[in-house]
Amino acid sequence: MKNIIIASTSTIHGSDYLEYMLDELSTFFKDAKTILFIPYARPSGISHNEYTKKAATAFAEIDKKVVGIHTFKNPIEAIKNAEAIFTGGGNTFVLVNQLYKNNLITTLKETVTNGTPYLGTSAGSNICGLTIKTSNDMPIVYPPSFNTLGFVPFNINPHYLDPNTNSKHMGETRETRIKEFHSYNTPPVIGLREGSWLRVNGDSILLKGKLKARVFEYNKTPYEVESGFQLNHLK
Amino acid sequence: MKNIIIASTSTIHGSDYLEYMLDELSTFFKDAKTILFIPYARPSGISHNEYTKKAATAFAEIDKKVVGIHTFKNPIEAIKNAEAIFTGGGNTFVLVNQLYKNNLITTLKETVTNGTPYLGTSAGSNICGLTIKTSNDMPIVYPPSFNTLGFVPFNINPHYLDPNTNSKHMGETRETRIKEFHSYNTPPVIGLREGSWLRVNGDSILLKGKLKARVFEYNKTPYEVESGFQLNHLK
């Protein structure tokens, strides 16, 4: 049975790394002593070791040990044997490229579908959707595919940002970009604002956190849903 | 001899489509009666016809006819025979995908390198660089490659945006994203602010417009260059 948290961000403004959801994570990871960390997204290009240290510091607060998948000779076995898995944010293209390069997509999909608890933040959440076609990141590497894990039957847009009505910048708003996605693709997209997450439990997909989320369905006007809303009807 | 304008944007705030550079374009396209328009980037998913109409309206102001490449049975021949070419903005991934699908990359590269005047705005400028790995767009389709025309020996970041120091949003700034690009790639990147363009004339690459541009070189602190600056030393 799937047991997943898909978070918009690791960090909210004015708060430490993962701090805003440590209570939730303490419950979520209650049966795990050690968390397997996937640091492949390398925010700002930091090393796998540095990034793992950052995650370890945060999880030490709730007495969890963190080990980086890059320290294992066989990363496929590391995923299969993990008590719990956390994929951190950074660059989604770099993350997906590395997952494909190490042949981890299928194993990760099977392992998490079979019940190993999985936490994703930002890029680590993007890959929980059907594709990374609604990522906000710069395409700094060319991955073998944009297809990802499909833990939920839609796409995620993390760090969802409302239009800045004062801006004189002519670049597209996030909403415009997601509408463009629907010129070429039909799956729904959930715009998750920073501080929101999806709690997947078997077939249930609940919106959690204090904020609303914005739902974009093909050929429909986008709409808001409240925290606590059940999203498993979307497809 | 290359004869190219690489513009950050088609439109600046409070002004009509292409209006801000019509004087420049009037001179640039002085020997062409008809401009071949490549509407493949389809901003907001509008049709090729609608987009071509928009370009035609703007160019009517300076007495130029505009024809869309999608109206030709043989788009390769259309490029070879064009008096001048304009590729408009929209989604860079959609644009590149369509150029590859129609086998136009090589022909476009050869034709423009041999002297057919080329104007690019936004996505149409991104493809003038080595790759689209510094595009700001959402990756809504998966193109066969991120490699592009290489009219200049570096990458373009159009719609370059300075960090908003008041923002509480935790998504990456443009500068952070370009620095991440340099964790995996070495070519320079030119951050072109809206209202700036590069004027390529043979081996000369001049920054034009009223604004400075931001230059990101591998392993160097980013720096600003003034309008009129010669960029052909970069590689």
Automatic annotation (TrEMBL), chains A, B:
<keyword id="KW-0224">Dipeptidase</keyword>
<dbReference type="InterPro" id="IPR005320">
    <property type="entry name" value="Peptidase_S51"/>
</dbReference>
<dbReference type="GO" id="GO:0016805">
    <property type="term" value="F:dipeptidase activity"/>
</dbReference>
<keyword id="KW-0378">Hydrolase</keyword>
<keyword id="KW-0645">Protease</keyword>
<dbReference type="GO" id="GO:0005737">
    <property type="term" value="C:cytoplasm"/>
</dbReference>
<keyword id="KW-0720">Serine protease</keyword>
<dbReference type="Pfam" id="PF03575">
    <property type="entry name" value="Peptidase_S51"/>
</dbReference>
<dbReference type="GO" id="GO:0006508">
    <property type="term" value="P:proteolysis"/>
</dbReference>
<dbReference type="InterPro" id="IPR029062">
    <property type="entry name" value="Class_I_gatase-like"/>
</dbReference>
<protein>
    <recommendedName>
        <fullName>dipeptidase E</fullName>
        <ecNumber>3.4.13.21</ecNumber>
    </recommendedName>
</protein>
<comment type="similarity">
    <text>Belongs to the peptidase S51 family.</text>
</comment>
<dbReference type="GO" id="GO:0008236">
    <property type="term" value="F:serine-type peptidase activity"/>
</dbReference>
<keyword id="KW-0963">Cytoplasm</keyword>
